[in-house]
Amino acid sequence: MTDPEPTDEQRYPTLSADGRAMLTRLREHPRAPRYHNQSGNRLTAAEVEQVRAFENEVLTARLDWTLDSPPTWLPDFIAQCYREVPHYRAMGSAPRCLDEIPSVSRADFSADIAAFVPDTAPLDRLINFRTSGTSGHPLLIASHPVVAASYLAFHKRALRRFGVTLTAGRGDVGVVLLGLQRKCFTYVSVTPTMHEAGLAKINLHPDDWRDPTDRAAYLDDLQPEVIAGDPISFTELLTLPMTWKPRALLCTSMALLAGLRRQLEQRFECPVLDLYSMNEGGPIAVFDPALNGHVLLQNRLYVEILDENDRRMPPGVRGEITLTGGFNFCLPLLRYRTGDHASLDFSGPEPVLRDLSGRPPVRYRAADGTWLNNIEITHAFKDLLLPQWSLHQAADGSLTLRHAGGAHQDDAARSVLERLLGPLALHIQPLPAGGDKVIQYTSDLPDPHA
Amino acid sequence: MTHEGPQLEQLTRRLTETPVDFLAEPRIGKNGLVQVDAVVADLLREFGGTPQVRELAAFAGFDAKKDRNRLATTLLLVWLLGDDWFRSAKTAPQAVLAVLGSAPAELAAQTAARHFVSDPDRREELVRVLLARLDLRPAGESAAQAQDRLTSISATERERFIAAARAAEERARAIRAALAKKAAEESADKYTRE
Question: What is the dihedral of CA B125, B131, B135, B139, to 10 degrees?
Fold first, then answer.
């Protein structure tokens, strides 16, 4: 049986004449890039209202749980998973509390995602999000147009923290999503919950443009309310003579160093939100410099910090960020290990993730034989303008730093590493822009603390 | 089913009164509370046995997906075997070990352990399977009656299980196919991309 191409009616079920005009403007602008793909919001009229109602709920919700007092929805959620999700149903009856449930990881999802999709998920509207990741487990995440559209609720909650309320509407461009890759999924759409404000996902790689100077001109003409990207594409954006000032930048996917954030804030005179977000769980937290941590965003997501034996760590103790709940009704999470590490802090009105870092901690041996946690290196690099980097220690103790910040930053990086680790042999190599994610910290040395 | 055993109702009622300790989470690796191997060892000693480490290995769980429901069902059978009738009948520890070694895996493959307590038909099935494996029939029933009833109640459950397993396989296939469609690959709008 043939698998037909989706139609525009399926991509934009509620498209009006204004919405169509927006799509044409984005696509046929004289300085537009070559758009390679097609996608859409896929929301029916009823779903548009559903997503709007969800936004209202998220904006007013309080995250008032603690480790001693988990959220009230948790027991019903556990029971529902054991009733409706094949992976858990195979384990028998629902346990009485979360502690008794073994954690799952990316490897489990990667082995068979179908086992984690509940019986209630409607298959006719299923969409997927693919991630390659850095752990060797490529993932295909089951999702739904309503789930994708619901991301905006958490972005709005995060933006409110920085005093920004989105107002883009009919005739405006709401968001431009930036990539900088040799090959990038690019398309145009409209956001029906914002009266069909335009959405464009573009690739800043020069090969995608008739003339590289079109990049700044196109962005200046679209005047997007928000620009979303990652440290690599934002570093490229800094090189363009764009004069438009968006109301906010949303940064996802990789660690955003304070130095780069400050430079973006100064250049574009707007808040730069460092979002902790992943396909498995959506936007989880946003970094608040005033709190020096990532504030949790989702009212129906319970976050634990676990050690390797599934034991919950007390506040202040680092471990693996583990998620239960979430808003993706096609993939409910039950003790899902993210592979990222942090500690939890409950001293303020909302739970905060401290010292967030991807992947397990790696320790480096200094020249004097002492050991240094990779978090120290992240902290020490914070004032550099490195969009992406990786640090490897070989078995002989020598270090290799690869970064995408340009050779002019080599001396500063060398000086930071020498201050932290002493006079070790250090090789600095360029990390090509537009590449895939990298594993940031690695070592060949056996860690005596592991 | 050569020998007459206890009243069926005596054991089904005992199941409804299962104490929380026997409904607690089996210890599997890092999770759970009850060391099922230790509970089985205690039971075997009550029947005059001397449990060996290798005999108990099957009652230590390692993989929650494979072992959790089986060990939870084992705990329920241990609770049933704790009924005075079995001790007064001088049930052989080897027979007890044989039942616990085989029946839970077969029963747990089809039914969540908690249903052996909450559902009247499943209570009856659990009791009848236990008695049959010990070559016993419920008091007051002939061997033929006991066999008929066991076959009937187990067959109904087996049919339900087979149908459910078939539906689950079909659903998993449908999910994989739906995720591979062009429409799914095109995905849908998000304000940010990870």
Answer: -110
For B130, list phi and psi in degrees, rounded to 5: -60, -50
Last residue of a domain, one of A335, A356, A377: A356
- Asked if residues B28 and B64 have their Cβ atoms less than 8 Å apart, the reply is yes
User: In sequence order, which residues have a C-beta less than 8 Å from that of residue A447 and are 6 or more positions away?
Assistant: A362, A363, A371
A106 touches chain B (CB under 8 A): no
Say how many domains are in chain B.
1
| Mean pLDDT score, A89-110 | 90
**Average pLDDT score over residue span B131-136:** 95
Counted domains in chain A: 2
Boundary-marking domain end, from A356, A388, A405: A356
The amino acid that residue A236 corresponds to is E
Tokens (6 digits) for A83: 């009733």
Asked whether the beta carbons of residue A41 and residue B28 sit closer than 8 angstroms, the reply is no
The answer to whether the Cβ–Cβ distance between B65 and A90 falls below 8 Å is yes
Q: Which residues of A touch B112 (CB under 8 A)?
A: 89, 92-93
Answer yes or no: is B149 within a domain.
yes
Q: For residue A434, give its domain range.
A: 363-443
pLDDT score, position A2:
78
Q: Is A91 on the interface with B (CB under 8 A)?
A: yes
Q: Is A1 among the domain residues?
A: no
Query: Strand, coil or helix: what is A402?
Result: strand
A324 with A394, same domain? no
pLDDT at residue number A327: 97
Flag whether B145 is in a domain: yes
Query: Do residue A338 and residue A437 come from a single domain?
Result: no
Residues A7, A12: Cα–Cα separation, whole Å: 9
Closest chain B C-alpha to A369 CA, distance in angstroms: 34
Chain B residues within an 8 Å CB radius of A117: 175
Give the separation between CA A198 and CA A20, rounded to whole angstroms: 10
Spell out which chain B residues touch chain A, with contact meaning CB-CB distance below 8 angstroms. 25, 28-33, 64-65, 68-69, 72, 108, 112-115, 168, 171-176, 178-179, 181-194
Q: pLDDT for B47-97, tens place per residue?
A: 999 999 999 999 998 888 889 999 999 999 999 999 999 999 999 999 999
Q: Do residue A160 and residue A137 come from a single domain? A: yes
Vertex B192, ends B188 and B194: CA angle to 5°? 90
Same domain, A335 and A386: no
**DSSP-based three-state secondary structure for B72:** helix
Q: Are residues A267 and A387 in the same domain?
A: no
> Taking a C-beta distance cutoff of 8 angstroms, is the pair A247, B191 a contact?
no
- Report which secondary-structure segment, H or E, holds A96: none
- pTM for the model stands at 0.82
- Pairing mode of beta strands A187-191, A293-296: unpaired
What are the backbone dihedrals phi and psi of residue B62, each rounded to the nearest 5 degrees, phi first? -125, -30
What whole-number distance in Å separates Cα of residue A258 and Cα of residue A432? 22
Cα torsion A91, A94, A98, A104: sign: positive
Nearest CB neighbour to B32, from listed A86, A100, A175: A100
A90 touches chain B (CB under 8 A): yes
